[in-house]
Every structure is written in structure tokens, then in C-alpha cells.
């Protein structure tokens, strides 16, 4: 079995748990992602709530990440989500250590290793150059840099603080050049995405600008327009 | 809209995340629950992984609880599960504060109140008489007593420590007589269930004895046989 | 050995870890507490950082609570604080479940029971009437009601929301009349303290208004002035 | 002000919170550390409970680490321990991310940076080669490798799994050669310490074998005997 890979550049949309991304809302965004992906040829992946992993893959044939996976073996755990459960639902990977769900280094390492062994993708979130470097040393598929102060805001990291991106890209190159970097936090337009790619990253991780949009397809179309 | 209620006695099976309860395994148990429920007329409810909430309701018409719900409003939370998401999937209630997912009192109260407002059932887990009393004061639909040392074992709480059950039933009666008590931990036979009911509780919360059974229907049939 | 008790009304100052309460700052507040306690005859207790428990008792002979205690037995725990360590330092009790350090119900119960067995006082913090009721069921010495939205503010709970106080006092009386209630959050003047006592509570739990005061003795003198 | 440094090799004893290391017990161990340090010229540092930081420095003039420090600014935090509080007590550094007190990568980075800015030493604990590499990328003064399965046991990591030590030493050298490596877990004799140094580390982090010894000075004397 050969490992999963996704074509670069990647637009990865974290649906979080907004009112707009629960239940039927997730389908609305998945339809938009399918449509814009077909038009543009750009890979758009989604990270929905656990119950929407399978329906989205099944109905829209979109690459799906879990938002989180618990670093536990299957067993007597209540309310936890072990890797085989997200894999069985059809996820091709998982976000790990999002700023809204921080993990210990030991647990991140466990997740990255387990995802690799399961031929799944890991996208580990970092918050600055130093933590990007540390996390790249664990050898995940992606590190997504999301300075917490910019998450959900109107200012993208590529505008507000391009040095954090270039610094991270350099640091990752020195530590483990097979790790891909994504730009996160505040991404809301085609220009942001273009800048992110020009700064050396292989795509973007974003959330609210797509999820809370009245017309998600219009926003996605704009995001990929300059690639 | 009138509040959800379940007929007493109740057999509530927490599927946790055993290898046997992931993906197809959940369906195997749901089929057994449907079958034994039909034969016996006893209510058998399941608490599966999040992704199995909707399929189980849809295919087997079984009352389903979430294993956990996060005490957050929908919004910018990654990897969390707000109440509207489990409700939208079809859950009629949620376990709260399982010994494998402890919450603060403030968060338990938030969950119990939110579930009540959403016309859903709350089943709060306690570990001894004192905590049963405290949790009953929050007015949930059910308190399930699970002494942690007996969880997953061969000895049921009704055999090992009937005083914890009768003490809890008395305490709950004094605090808030509308709260129903379930007996948890170590339940594995019809005799355990019968004793649990005779001690004054309105059913059982159990997990491994059903989930890990080669023939879940046979076990469920035994569990309800003396009711 | 007879159990520790403190004279009512009680003024309990949580020093938290403000710049003003670290190191020498703690002594400045302890001196003020000693002075005003001597003048007024009112019991003023302090909850300082762990390293200041013993120096404050030793130098100022003031009743001292820990801000937190970990519900663990002495043993292989790093960075944790078991009960025998705060007792050995001279604390007569501990805050439990402060809104800035929430615990599970099982852990609160463990702490309350362990403090009682060690002849020490427990002061459990709650956030509304429902949680006050639940926590009173555990039989601590004190429940301190601190609606989180008022903590650190200029508006005291006795002005902003007297019903939460009277409701809590009534609820506690019904559940366990030996539990004493303290009023917390936003207490900053003699009037607040007087109102708190008139509403049926046996004192106050406060922090920033004393800790951040230029002249802590002046504030403490005002706080006890109408008792 | 020039940064704190400690002479190599270093024997760092984590007192944890054993019955034997609470209160007077801490003094018993400090006396032994003073005595053996004087005899041998080897640096022996201690990581006691917070309340023993100042007394141990004051009475025994021993370099003291905190067992943990909270990655928060001084302020409205109850039961937390910000850096200025341990510094004011006299600690020259802190353990960070011990396996018994795991932190997120973001918080470890915050602690390492804050300790460096305060001219204090950071000793970050890792659990395998991959996490050692990741943590070395944050540039702490020390990384202490403690495979969790060996902590508190009779088998030292240098006997059980020397590859984890040599692998970590190599990895650290490639990432950041100014980071010093300590060997942890299961260290109990002079041979263990000698092997640890021969494998390229600059000392040991240990706990139970000293703390629970009837005669801590005898054990410490043995530990440094082959250096």
C-alpha cells in the first residue's frame, strides 16, 4: 500500500464547529469545495466534525481530515476518538495539535507516528518559528503555522508577519526537508493564498472565512484564483 | 415539544471505542440491541462513537446517547463536539462526566442545563454516594453510579458493594426525587440487572460485557432475562 | 484533636499570583492583615502561593489556606501538591475548585474528604446556585460563590446579583445546614461585606481589591468597618 | 548579568512529592546532597516542592530547580506558579514537561524562552529520540530523556536501552549542539551514572532511588563514585 499524498498547493478548510458547519451546513461547504475543486483543479480538503467525515467522502469524494485524533489505542475510553475510528470513517489524515486542542509533545509524536504507520497524513499546527522547528523534527507530513493572535481575524499571517512564514520555511528545510509547510490564520483572499505560496509554503489552512461565508463557493473561487 | 423520556427499566450500553465497537462493529451491536429489544420489550439504548450516532438511529431505530458533549457554544473550537452537533445527528441525550472523561462541576451543570433546554436526556456518571448526591442536586435525568475500581471487571457493583447503590438511591431521593438512578460497573448477567432493579435503580449502564462479547445478542438476552 | 474552626465573619483573601503578591509582596499584605485583624477583632485569613504558606504563619500568625491542593497521595508526582505538604507547611485548609483551577466532582470530593480527615478546612468555590447546591452536598466547611463574570470586577456579587447569594444560602440550608457560605467576586468595600453578611453568608472571599491596593491595610480596614 | 551555568557532570534529584521528601524529609536529602557534593566536588542539584525551594537554598546552598513552572504571566491565577515566584524563592531553573506534568509545545516554548530571559536554566524532559530532537529544537539548557516505562524502576535507561541515549545525543548534536543531554529513568548506581556519561550525556536526572533511600548520602556517594 503506498502512502497517501495530496497534490500541492493544498487548500485545507477546518470546519471547526460553527453553527454554519454543523449538520446540513457541512454539506453546503462540501458541495462548494467539490465545485471549485472541479473548476480549478486545485485540491481542496475539509476537516469536518467526526460525524461528517464519512458522509462528505461518500457524497462529494473530497479528501477529509479529522480535526483531532486521540493518542490512545482502541479500548475502554469514553468520548475519545482513536485513529482506527477516523480511518474506518474514511479520513485520509488528521489535524494534530490545533491551537484550540493542544497536545503534549509525547502525544503529538504518538499521533504523527501512528498516522504514518496507518498510511495517513498528519498536519501538525504550530504557533511560531520555534515551535514549527520543534514540530518539524517529528517528521509530520505538514506543519501549519497559525499565530494564535491572527486566528479568525481579518489580517492574514502572510500580510501581518511574513517573517514568521519565511523563518518557518527555512527552519523546516534545515530540520527535515520532506515536511511541507502550510500557512494558517487570517487567510481570506486569493492574494493571501498567492503570497503564502510565494513565501515558500505549499498551501493554506483556513476556517472562518470559508465556513461563515454566505457563499462558500465564491470565497473558495477567490482563494484559488491566483494560483 | 415534549421532553424525551425512556421507558424504565433501561439498559444503556456504552460502546466506548473498543476495536469491537468501531465501524462495522457498532452495527453488529446495534443489530443485536434491536433484536433483543424487540423480543423482550425492554429499552436498550446505545452510546456509540460520534460517527455512529446517525447511522445507528437511521438503520436500527435505537435510542442513542452521545458518549460526551463539550460544554461550548458552536463556534471556533477544533476537535470539540457542541450539543447542536449531536442533536443534529439524532442523539436523544448524552453521557456526562464519565469516569473516563471527567468534567468540572461548572461544566457538568452547563451540560445538564443545555441538554434539558434542548429537550434531551442527561446521564451523569458518579463514583460514590457523596458524588451521586452532589450530581443529583444538578437535576439531571439520570445519575449512573460507577465505582471506578469495578469498571470493566467481572464483579458487578450490585454484588460487590450493594450499599453504594442503596445509599445512592436514598441520597438521590432526598435531594431530587425526579432524578433516576442507574447501576454501572461490572454488570454482566441477568442476575446483576435484576439485583440493580431490586435495589431501587431504574436500569443499568454497561459496556465491555456486551461490546466484547462474541455474541452480543446472547449477552443482551441474558441481561434482560429476569426483568 | 479537635477540628479547626474559624470565627465568623471571615474575610478570606486569595493572593493569587499577582506581581503584588509574590515574594515580599505577600509579606506586605500579611502585615496589613495582622494589623487590621488586631484592631478589629475580625478574622482575616490569607491564601498565598505555596512558598509563602509557612513564612506567613510563622511571622504573622495568620490563618493560612492553600490556593489549591492536588487530590493525590504522596508519591511519584512531579509539580503536584499533596495535602501532607500544605499541612506540613502550616496551612489550616485549602481553597478547592477555584474558577481558575477547576476540578472534577470526584476530585473535589476526594479533597473535601481528605481535608476533613486531616482536621483541615475546605473552602469549595461555586459559580451559581445550582453548583453551590451540588457542592454543598459534599459537606465542605465553606462554599464560596463566585460568579465568574464578576471576578476581578468593580461590581460586587451582592450588588449585581443578590438573588444568587440568597438562593445559594437557601439551597445550602436545605442540603446541609452545617456548610457555611462565603460571598465572592467583586467585593471591594465595607458595604459589600455588610450586604454579604446581611444576605445570610458568613463572610467573603476576595482577591484583587486587597492585593492590588496601594495601601492594603486601608482597604482591609474599610472592608471590616461595618461589621 | 551573566547566565547561570552548572558544572558538568550534573546529578539532578527530583524530590517529587514522596512522603520521604515532604517537609523535614526535604532537609534530610538536602543535607546529604550538601555533604556528598562537598566530598566529591560533583554538582548535585535538587528539585523540591515549591515551599522547600527557599529553605534548601538558604540552609544548604544547593542549586535548586522548581519541578514545574506555569507558562503564565503574574496575575489572576489561583494555584498556579509563575516564573517570578520561583525566581524570587531562589530557584536557578525549572524542570519543564516532566512525564508526570506534560505541557503543550507552545507552553514548553514559552517556558524555555521565559527562563532564558530570566537568566534561569531549563531542563525539558523527553520520552524518546523523536521527542528529544523536537525539544532540542527549542534550545533549552538541558533535555533529560526519561522513557516513561523505566521511570521509578530498577533498570536504568543506560542498561535497558542505551540506543535511546546515543540516538538522542546524536540527534541533539545535529539540531542544536549547545543543548546538554541528561540521562533519566531508573538511575540507581555509580555504574548507571558512569555509563550515562560515557554514552555522551552530561549527567543524570533521578528521583526515587535517592528520595526513598534509608541513607540518601550513601546512595549519592555511590552515584558519583565512578565519575
UniProtKB/TrEMBL annotation, chains A, B, C, D:
It is an enzyme of class 5 (isomerase). It catalyses: D-glyceraldehyde 3-phosphate = dihydroxyacetone phosphate. Its EC number is 5.3.1.1. Pfam families: TIM (PF00121). One of its GO terms (biological process) is glycolytic process. One of its GO terms (cellular component) is cytoplasm. Pathway: Carbohydrate degradation; glycolysis; D-glyceraldehyde 3-phosphate from glycerone phosphate: step 1/1; Carbohydrate biosynthesis; gluconeogenesis. Substrate binds at residues 14-16, 151, 186, 207-208. GO terms for molecular function: triose-phosphate isomerase activity. It comes from the Archaea. Homotetramer; dimer of dimers. Belongs to the triosephosphate isomerase family. This is Triosephosphate isomerase. It comes from Methanospirillum purgamenti.
